[in-house]
Amino acid sequence: IPGVVLVVLVLVINLLGDWMRDVLNPKLYKG
What we know:
This protein has one helix spanning 2-24. It is mostly helical. The protein has one domain (1-31). The relative contact order is 0.12. The model has no long low-confidence stretch (mean pLDDT 85).
């Protein structure tokens, strides 16, 4: 079921991207 695998990969990549953005650039979220 390639469609389901692609959807899961996209969700995981988005979550990792948000987490890395918070960890690497904390100054951007403190105003």
